[in-house]
Write a structure and sequence with these properties.
With about 110 residues, the protein is mostly helical. It contains 4 helices and no strands.
Length: about 110
């Protein structure tokens, strides 16, 4: 917006000789131009607020509905990704069981 004001008052013209860059932003008639600029600002603010709301909702759903806290205990619904970390009844996870089996296999090879 600032550029179009400076462009207008500095005497800038487009290739056709018009003192504006776009028809809608013609500072010779500032009423519709100011209305358009305010409308763009409102739409920009509303879009930003909407996207921030989506991000907050996503973060809220993750903390309320998903899975494992920092100690490794379940705090809500368990998803398929969380089930590889810990099970609901506190048993070892599948990934740690595979690791344990791998260690036992390595120990048996070194014993031979």
């Amino acid at each position: 917006m600032t550029f179009t004001i400076v462009y207008h008052f500095a005497g800038g013209t487009d290739p056709s000789g018009n003192p504006y860059i776009y028809d809608i932003i013609d500072w010779r008639d500032p009423g519709p131009t100011v209305g358009y600029v305010v409308l763009c600002a409102v739409v920009l603010f509303a879009s930003h607020a909407f996207l921030c709301g989506i991000a907050l909702a996503r973060a809220y759903m993750q903390t309320r509905l998903c899975c494992i806290d920092s100690v490794g205990e379940t705090t809500g619904l368990v998803t398929s990704n969380a089930s590889s970390v810990a099970s609901i009844d506190g048993q070892k996870s599948a990934s740690s069981a595979v690791y344990t089996i791998g260690q036992e296999a390595d120990a048996s090879r070194t014993a031979l």
